[in-house]
Amino acid sequence: MSGGFGAGEHPVDFAAHRQRRGEAGAREDFEQMLTDLVSAVTGKDAIPVRANPGDWGIDVLVGDLDGRVTIWQAKYFINGFGESQQRQVRESFGSARKYAREKGYTIERWVLCVPCELDAPTVRWWQRWSHERRAETGVAIELWDAGGLRRRLALPEAATVRRSYYDPYRPAGPAGPAPVPPAPYGPAEVPWRGGEELCLGGDRYLLHDDAAETFAPDRSWVSREATADRVEPAAARVRLHRVAVLRDTPDAAGAREALRDRAALLSALAGARGLPRLLGLREEPGAAAVTLVTESPAGPRWREVFGPGGGPLDRPTGGSFDRFTGGSFDRLTGGSFDRLTGGSFDRFTGGSFDRFTGGPLDRLTVADVLAKAARLADALAELHRRGHSHRMLSPDTIVLTGRAYEPALRDAGLAAWPVRPGEGPEEYRAPEQVRAGPRLPRPGPHTDLHQLAAVVYHTVTGHPPLPGGSPPVRATVRGFPAAADELLARCLDADPRRRPGRAGALAAAFREGRRELSRGEFS
After folding, report:
1. Is 278 helix (H, G, I), strand (E, B) or coil?
2. CA 173 to chain centre
3. Would you call 136 exposed, middle or buried from its count of C-beta atoms within 10 A (0-12, 13-18, 19+)?
4. Which of 1, 29, 24 is CA-nearest to residue 115?
5. How far apart are the C-alpha atoms of 278 and 265, rounded to whole Å?
6. C-alpha count within 13 angstroms, C-beta hemisphere, residue 420
7. Which residues have a Cβ under 8 Å from the Cβ of 390 and sit 6 or more positions away?
């Protein structure tokens, strides 16, 4: 592995995590850096794993937790590596192995990452311990110590990671004046945790879960999004999106302004067609932070009603049949399947084993999916008419409200937000969100058509669309309307220019498909 720092660039000092976040937040900051570094040097999507309450012995993951994985274990041992740290390493590896056995996946590679150098006795301990564990378990075990981390950070593909975390206060270039030292986190920068109470502009909110947190590439601002219950002055379920400025830069000013633009857009839309309704925009003195508050629709997520991966089986089981049964089907049923089903498997599954297990849906359910997808396309058309796009559609950002399960968008997604590489929900990301190029249009309304089509395709067939082109829905779901199938295929085209020009066309095809399904049967 080769590479070096450019002229005038700072050497990496891992104490920057502690200077920036304090003792309490340094480990989390180091883990976030590691996630970005792994993505950069492997070219694969690295997944950070939060402790909720446990992290399965994983800090950063590449792979499939239903198959084979590589695990990076981050230990912020900034002051050295002694016996106490050795014990933590042994416990972490043991925990990772334990959960892999329990959950049924295979660890191919386990990488320990520490921001310190090892002395000779510790090197000997590490070599002996890692060789013994490798022989015992078959897991490839590696060490990324301070030197190994610096070598990887020096690679050209990791330049953005290096500058974001270790030299975020000036651009790369010739050596100049010493940079401003990192400032410790202020109150606006404290992560939001589920169960905590926030006070914003005199209103009080109880957070449901940890916020989704995104830092700017230059670390000049942070975005946090979460669902909460407003407890004062009047009870309401809300969605919060906050931009906190860490350093006053043009990029930070742009993020702040984008949130103001979104507030103006939602105010003009006034909750039309299931789009989010604006409740308020809270600005702190000096514009240090701006918080958008929108009404959060009440009801189950699309995934919880239709799937994919979260349909009728997941609802009673919490997504895990083993978890539901305590690892024993007999324990659940008392040795009798009739006791569980009331003597009727059809009654238990709603008449469709495929629907119960996450396979293709039955005719009437498919008709219902198309009817609701048509209403979503109407909402997107309204957004597009005003010059914006959502770009975050997935089964988790669509909520089904009321007794009729009317579809509504959980929030405004990325409307009015600057386009950034890699944006969008991972499983439903459109090709133009993954890679940019002079010949490929930027994400926009055509991105929404791709994402909505992907959600419908995945829901109806039980499997996600393939990047290189998917089989028609009719290959899985016999009798699916041909016109709707053809339009779905066009929406899923990798080239945005070959997709339909309007969301209204998709809405019309879905409605006609619903009528055909309601009149006939699969054959």
Report:
1. strand
2. 34
3. exposed
4. 29
5. 9
6. 16
7. 380, 383, 409, 412, 413, 414, 415, 448, 451
DSSP type of residue 54: -
Is-cis flag, bond preceding 308, omega within 30?
yes
Per-residue pLDDT of the chain (523 residues; tens, 9 = 90+): 444 444 445 578 888 888 767 777 788 888 889 998 998 888 888 888 876 555 688 889 899 888 999 999 999 998 889 898 999 999 999 999 999 999 999 999 999 999 999 999 999 999 999 999 999 999 999 999 999 999 999 888 888 888 778 764 434 344 444 444 444 344 446 788 888 888 887 899 999 988 988 888 888 899 999 999 999 888 899 999 999 998 888 889 999 999 999 999 999 999 888 899 999 999 887 668 999 999 999 899 999 999 886 444 333 333 333 333 444 444 444 444 444 444 444 443 444 334 444 556 788 899 999 999 999 999 999 999 999 999 999 999 999 999 889 999 999 999 999 888 888 888 899 988 887 655 678 899 999 999 999 999 999 999 899 877 889 999 888 889 999 999 999 999 988 999 998 999 999 999 999 999 888 744 4
Q: How far is CA 470 from the centre of its chain?
A: 24
Q: What is the pTM of this model?
A: 0.59
| The token pair that represents 189 in the structure block | 């920068």
Beta carbons of 204 and 198 less than 8 angstroms apart: yes
Whether residue 71 contacts residue 60, with contact meaning beta carbons closer than 8 Å, is answered with yes
* 163 token code pair: 């500058």
* Residue 161, token pair as written in the block: 């990671």
Whole-angstrom distance, CA of residue 449 vs CA of residue 418 = 19
CB 152 within 8 A of CB 158: yes
What is the C-alpha R_g of the chain?
25
**Tokens in use for 381?**
């058309």
> Of the candidates 178, 172, 193, which has an alpha carbon nearest to the alpha carbon of residue 24?
193
